[in-house]
Write the structure tokens for this entry.
Amino acid sequence: MSDHLKDFELMVLLAVLRLDEEEAYGVPIANQIEQTTGRGAALASVYAALERLEDKGWVSSRLGESTAQRGGRAKRHFRVTATGVRRVREAKGALVKMWMGIRELQGGAT
Amino acid sequence: MTPANPPAFATKLLESLVPARMSEALLGDLIEQYEAGRSRRWYCQQVILALVISAGREVRTNKLQAVRAVLIGYLAGASLSYFTTSLAGKFVGADMAVYTAYYVVFLPLCFFSAVVSGWIVHRLRPRAMVLVWAGFGPRRGYRGSCGVCLAALV
């Protein structure tokens, strides 16, 4: 399996990190991405990314209680593992290094 | 006004064709959002997207099984379609208009063949391979793909 962290996977990891574990399930994660980036996130894409991240060991999940409001289906709560946090830091470090020293990107907001 | 229950067909399709690991929590989230006021159209779009993503994942992770599903589906569908339409051709009278024969006899038979081929692929594991077969085969067009997916609900 590829160890590469894709753009959308990084956003999902950051969204999970921003939320408490009780809140970190599909809908709030998709909303968090949408509110923060302005980019729409389909629930199926979020779950597909979370599944890949879980296979890589960067997030873990547990089933919550099922409620009538959800048609008797349980929520799956996610949290970022220590390896996942390290991977996010590495991604940030790599991006910052790439960013530095580029004249076109200095001094402005855009 | 949004109807009380989400589309049952879409729900059943997702339950049948997407692995439980993803479908259970996703369905719960979709129902939660639907209850909060999302439309039936939104619900169906999300289900279709989940089916497409699941099919793509199956192809990436089980390449050999995907090839097997397409081969078996093609063999079953094409042979059944050939057999039934050849047989029907003998009974369709020369006085029947070409378009009538096409829409009343041959097209339903091809659709039936697609359903049977989907049913056969669905018997093989994993079940999500039906999606791979439904997405493949441009010759059948969307009617054939719908027929193949329909088989998952039989």
About this structure: The helical segments of chain A are 7-18, 26-37, 43-56, 82-99. Chain A touches chain B at residues 25-27, 42-45, 47-48, 51, 63, 66, 69-71, 73-76 (CB under 8 Å). Chain A has four helices and two strands.
